[in-house]
Design a protein that fits this description.
The protein has 295 residues and is α+β, with helices and mostly antiparallel strands. Among the domains are: 10-95; 190-293, Alpha-Beta Plaits (2-Layer Sandwich). Helices cover 49% and strands 22% of the residues. Helix 5 (205-221) packs across helix 6. It is elongated.
């Protein structure tokens, strides 16, 4: 039995030419991918720096979209780099790409049936980004397919395939874009903090309204709270009537995503003001669902 052994000169020639190119392709792809990541970080830093002089409301929306675009472009570019590097490496091994067209077609069809979810995620991510449904830094509530509930959190990353959220408890939630049924954006354009103040049904409504109005004026004049408010909070009046209590509604329009902070500050101010004025408060100072509204 005779075994054919390649001459050492051929192996040496292959190592000096093709193998060297393969190593260079792999190292080049890794370095280029890292450079793209570094460049993306620099672009995001520049976006933040340029946004500091713009209007707070406009800046937040433009910045969120640019962050999302930068993340997606970075992800797509890195994927393309590794795909091109893989093709070049396969060529250096002497595999004829033309002969792989037919098998690749069959494999592509089979993979298409098995990877429908991935294709669905990528298409959904493309339209999500193109339609500006939400972006980096948005506070959103997402209902995903196959889940009976919703998840609420701050968007930390958006790619063509997944959306990564950070919940209020610090949990990281990753949602495939194709599984998103509907999205409630709590920080689009502007937000609204809605506070229902419970008072006894026998209370003097005129006096309650005066106290709440003064709280709104003081809150808007506060140096720390004023930058979060788009206009002075307002007292809407009696929202509901009960046997033993009624609720007076206070509404504040805030910067995107800051409605929770403003709501907590106003509730604290209202509790102190009622105590100072000798007014009774109902069973508890509660807040209605905080609404996010579009302009």
């Amino acid at each position: 039995m005779t075994v054919a052994v390649a001459p050492l000169s051929d192996i040496d020639k292959w190592v000096r030419s093709d193998l060297l190119l393969i190593v260079l392709f792999i190292i080049g792809a890794i370095l280029l991918a890292r450079f793209v990541g570094w460049l993306s970080a620099k672009v995001i830093e520049r976006i933040d720096a340029e946004a500091t002089g713009a209007d707070a409301l406009v800046r937040s929306e433009a910045e969120k979209h640019r962050h999302a675009v930068a993340q997606v472009v970075t992800w797509v570019t890195i994927v393309l780099i590794y795909c091109v590097a893989t093709v070049l490496v396969v060529q250096r091994f002497g595999v004829p790409l033309a002969g792989l067209v037919a098998p690749a077609t069959v494999a592509g069809v089979a993979l298409g049936f098995g990877a429908q979810r991935i294709v669905q995620d990528i298409l959904a991510g493309f339209f999500l980004l193109a339609e500006r449904q939400y972006g980096f830094g948005d506070v959103v509530r997402i209902a995903a397919g196959g889940s009976s509930g919703t998840v609420t959190g701050t968007v930390e990353e958006v790619t063509l395939r997944i959306t990564r959220l950070r919940s209020a408890n610090g949990e990281v939630v990753i949602v495939p874009n194709g599984q998103v049924i509907y999205v409630t954006n709590l920080s689009r354009d502007w937000a609204r903090a809605v506070i229902d103040v419970p008072v006894p049904s026998t209370a003097d409504i005129a006096r309650v309204t005066d106290v709440l109005h003064q709280v709104c004026v003081d809150a808007y004049a506060d140096e720390e709270l004023r930058p979060l408010l788009l206009d002075p909070p307002s007292v809407m009046g009696v929202e509901s009537l009960g046997v033993d209590e009624l609720q007076v509604r206070v509404v504040a329009r805030t910067l995107p995503g800051r409605q929770f902070e403003v709501g907590r500050a106003l509730r604290g101010r209202i509790a102190l003001a009622f105590g100072s004025a000798g007014l009774a408060v109902g069973p508890g100072l509660t807040t209605a669902d905080v609404e996010a509204a579009d302009q």
